[in-house]
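Data card: per-record layout.
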Amino acid sequence: MQNYLDFEKSLAELEGKAEELRALARQDPEMDISEEAERLDHRASEMLRDLYAKLTPWQKCQVARHPSRPHTLHYVERLFNEWTPLAGDRNFAEDHAVIGGLARFEDRPVVVIGHEKGTDTKSRIERNFGMARPEGYRKAVRLMQMADRFGLPVITLVDTPGAYPGKGAEERGQAEAIARSTEMCLKLGAPIVSVVIGEGGSGGAVAFATADRVAMLEHAVYSVISPEGCASILWKNAEKMKEAAAALRLTAQDLLQLKVIDRVIEEPVGGAQRDPKEAISRVGRAISDMLGGLDGMSRDDLRAARRRKFIEMGRVGLA
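The structure for this 319-residue chain is written out next.
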């Protein structure tokens, strides 16, 4: 069953009418309504294309959070072979909001790390809705250290509203854990590429996305704070999230222009949730291309180029 967003109500009506006609035809095979159903399908297809060609920043936030959008485990299942998950930070606990392990990508051994939001109520609670605690980032550091030791490329998939802000997480050193993960990304002597597949929220996303190459899906978002959080701080009113989303410049298109990311991965018409298989394939091709562009670089060259990239980010030229 298709989940529709608020701005897709008119589309839902059209597609609903077309499905009703098909249901009537199934009940009475003598009814000839195929032409009318096809006409509605055509109108719905045009409406879908028009809607997604001019999404506002807030609408892109809604798409990035769509419950049917493919999550990290979906990408792992389709893009990687010999997936061997590794658990625990060897210090406190296992964090189910972060998955990581060894795998093969195009027959090449790699380390995969990503946020996982879950797909139903039970798994979302278990995964803490993709909001990692300190042990999740420390697990990521452990895996990156292993990748560095054996020269394995690191692939990270980012999809989080942000790091978990709970009392226990803060008591166990949330900020320090995020900083260590970001630092480890910079210290890696192996290639690291990152894809923002949904939400890229705050330092919780940067901890995995301080990479040689960073890509975003066309309707993903990446920002220092959520629009609701920004609106609450600036206007003392979370209902101002639409204005906040526009001001944050959190879309893939804005961030490519600002040179915060390196590429935008086009999504199927209607977003990744409409055709998950095709969206995942496109991400796979982008990862392959990004890794290929880093082949042959020495450990020192990788580190130097990565540091230079982030140091120069946002630099304002002097007249």
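Known properties of this structure: DSSP finds 14 helices and eight strands in the chain. The chain has a mean pLDDT of 92.

See the next section for split statistics.
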